[in-house]
Amino acid sequence: MKPKTFDVWVVIFLCLLPNWKFEAEAKNNFEMQTDNFTCSSEDVNSRILKEFRCGISKSAKRRTWHMEFMLKQPVAEHEFFMKIVLPRKSPLKDFVLLNVTTDGCQLLANRNQVPLMRLGRNVMERFSNFPKQCPFKSKTTYYIRGFRLDLNLLPAVDMETPVHTELSYRSKHHGLTWISGFLEARVQRLNEKKRPK
């Protein structure tokens, strides 16, 4: 490497270093607080779904959400849908952060996914007993319990905003969504007591 080229890279590195440090610090100043989590099903005749329930924990300080379901029959081929929206006040349009439908079996196996979905699947393993490959079995209670997103796992966040997330699992064979979840949350600044030293 020529001396001039090396000098240019050193200058670029020194300029980026403070910004990188600022972003790392900014991310630690925010947390995501869950306000509500509900779920529903199109399977009104219980062809696929035997039972389901969703909700949030009672603790207002460190609220988490949960979803549980049991299937009447195994489900192999299915689609997973997720949409993450940051609502904005009128006349601005809501900002859609993610809007994707993907092959559910590939998602379970964590293959060929959008990086954000792959990260989400990795995080979810700590909170769920979802299989790592298809099918979802019958007469097994699948769950996501105590889920709370750690913003330190994501790129730096430096804003306070509401966050609305919709997710659903749809059977390709039956052509219906056996469960959908609706999450209302907000990214907020940590108070001084919670702020890392």
From TrEMBL:
InterPro entries: DUF1091. Residues 1-26 form the signal peptide. Keywords: Signal. It holds the Pfam family DUF1091. This is Uncharacterized protein. It comes from Drosophila suzukii (Spotted-wing drosophila fruit fly). The lineage of its organism: Eukaryota, Metazoa, Ecdysozoa, Arthropoda, Hexapoda.
